[in-house]
Design a protein that fits this description.
Layout lengths: L5 H16 L2 E8 L5 H14 L7 H4 L3 E7 L11 H9 L13 E9 L4 H6 L2 E9 L2 H4 L9 H12 L2 H15 L9 H20 L41 H23 L6 E6 L1 H7 L1 H18 L6 H6 L5 E6 L10 H18 L7 E5 L7 E7 L2 E8 L6 E2 L2 E2 L6 E3 L8 H10 L32 H9 L5
The structure holds guanosine-5'-triphosphate and magnesium ion.
The site of guanosine-5'-triphosphate has 22 residues, from α2.
């Protein structure tokens, strides 16, 4: 085997130093379960590395991007985002959507570009590391716990559990609480039963169509913590100022709540959240509207909670630690390909309305916050169809097996033309209608992924179809590529 020479070592050191000096931007991608995070990252990376279909991404439009490629990520302790596997699913025959992911992951894309500034360009080609971090929105919902003690957490959680829309789901848990004395001797079996009933209640709310997950987020996405004492607690009704007797059940619950904060929430904050520069929050607005008023109200609540973590009020605990780190947050309504092009601007406007209201409720500034409707991977094509002598815009795509419209059930293989309807032109009216509706305001079906080609005739990787993915990328990264 050839021996390492000094010159090899020097080259290696230079390469490492060069890499160390390359600027990087950490982009957080989050959203509640099924919001579209995995598809978003896969499509974004694919379109970056294949260098196509991004006309509204300024550096690409100005033909300044030289190339983009994957590189090993900087954090050895975070699982890698399994780009190749997700891509493999989308390119399979027939194509399938990637599987649900349940934990944090990371991927580094390095972008080589020519600067827009002549001086910088004279030095040569510039480089930027784009570090994409995918994490569950459920973890984000936990951050406000850092500002709460057990008493406040209990008060809020029990207040929500007794709200009319949730009381039905919460019945078994509230029944259990009614027969449990907080001052009783601590008991692991009671803790386990209570935590199980509390978790079942949270799950029922989520399965009932809520877009917001109630804290603690790990109760629904436990991962490695399944069965751990960290997740074996529940809220209890406590008087304010009441002292919790030593060795009591309530004292045990308080201790575990505090441990959950120090062992679960705080490390996520320190190791991941506080290191982000930019954030995109994916929101499935259309399925909320499709489910009706309750789901829209939950979405409102989730957005307010999320904004409070990104744009904390001046006196908040989080603001002390967060400083000015995340300076741009993009809220993106995903799966816009379920609506015809005429409705995309309307979906933008609708989400903007939701975000503006949440900004006001969260009492934060809206600086650096933008709303956009996108489809990371476009599964439908625009088409027109004649109907009663009229030409109507419609969408062509292959609905997923078992999806239904009226009395038609789709087989998963046949393409169909769908009239999803248009969103109303006035976003406030659209939102009010959705908030007032007892049932769905839109009738939507889910589509299979489109049939994609892997390579172009010349062997280069083919770009994937999308809606406004380039505008999202532009808002989130362009200034780093100047
Ligand atoms: N038509 C269409 N459907 C999409 C798009 N993006 C996501 N979907 C649908 O939404 C589902 C969830 O997308 P994912 O990217 O897996 O969502 P996620 O946020 O990673 O979900 P979890 O990993 O479960 O948290 C997919 O299986 C698709 O059915 C899109 O751009 N267009
Ligand atoms: Mg995922």
């Amino acid at each position: 085997m050839a021996e390492l020479t000094y010159s090899d070592l020097l080259k290696d050191a230079q390469a490492r130093l060069g890499d160390y000096l390359t600027p990087s931007v950490r982009l957080g991608v989050t959203g509640l379960s099924r919001a579209g995070k995995t598809v978003f990252i896969t499509a974004l990376v694919r379109n970056l590395v294949s260098g196509g279909r991004l006309p509204f991404f300024a550096p690409e439009a100005e033909q300044r991007i030289v190339r983009a490629y994957l590189e090993p990520q900087p954090d050895d302790s975070v699982p890698r985002f399994d780009y190749e596997a997700h891509l493999g699913d989308l390119l399979a025959a027939p194509p399938r959507w990637p599987e649900s992911t349940r934990r944090i992951s990371e991927l580094r894309v390095t972008i080589e570009y020519r600067s827009a500034y002549r001086l910088k360009r004279a030095v040569g080609i510039s480089k930027l590391h784009l570090d994409i971090v995918d994490y569950p929105g459920e973890w984000l919902i936990d951050l406000p716990l850092l500002e709460q003690d057990y008493r406040t957490f209990s008060g809020e959680a029990l207040g929500l559990a007794s709200a009319p829309s949730r009381a039905e789901f919460a019945k078994p848990f509230l029944g259990f609480l009614a027969g449990t004395d907080p001052a009783a001797q601590e008991d692991e079996q009671i803790a386990l039963t209570g935590a199980k009933l509390f978790t079942e209640y949270l799950r029922a709310v989520r399965d009932g169509g809520a877009q917001s997950t109630l804290a603690p987020g790990r109760f629904l996405l436990p991962g490695d913590l399944e069965g751990s004492p960290l997740l074996t607690f529940f809220p209890m009704p406590l008087m304010s100022g009441e002292k919790l007797p030593r060795g009591s059940l309530a004292a045990m619950m308080m201790r575990r709540f505090e441990s959950y904060k120090t062992a679960v929430v705080r490390p996520f904050f320190d190791e991941h959240f506080a290191r982000l520069d930019r954030q995109i929050v994916l929101v499935d607005v259309l399925s909320a509207m499709n489910r009706g008023a309750e789901a829209v109200a939950d979405l409102d609540r989730a957005m307010t909670a999320i904004l409070k973590t990104f744009r904390p009020g001046a006196n908040s605990w989080l603001s002390l630690f967060l400083g000015k780190k995340i300076d741009r947050v993009l809220f993106a309504a995903t799966k816009a390909d379920h609506l015809p092009a005429s409705s995309h601007d309307r979906l933008d406007a609708l989400l903007k309305e939701i975000v503006d209201e949440a900004i006001a409720r969260a009492e934060t500034e809206g600086a650096g916050v933008k709303a956009l409707a996108l489809a990371a991977l476009r599964a439908t094509r625009e088409a027109t169809a004649k109907h009663g002598g009229e030409t109507l815009p419609c969408l062509r795509g292959t609905p997923i097996k078992g999806e239904r419209i009226g009395n038609v059930t789709f087989d998963g293989a046949t393409e169909a033309a769908i009239f999803p309807g248009d969103l109303p032109a006035d976003p406030v009216a659209a939102l009010n209608a959705a908030r007032a509706a007892k049932a769905a305001t839109l009738e939507l079906v889910r589509f299979s992924p489109p049939r994609l080609s892997d390579t172009l005739a010349d062997g280069r990787p083919a770009a994937f179809p999308h809606i406004r993915l380039d505008r999202a990328l532009d808002f989130l990264t362009s200034d780093y590529l100047a």
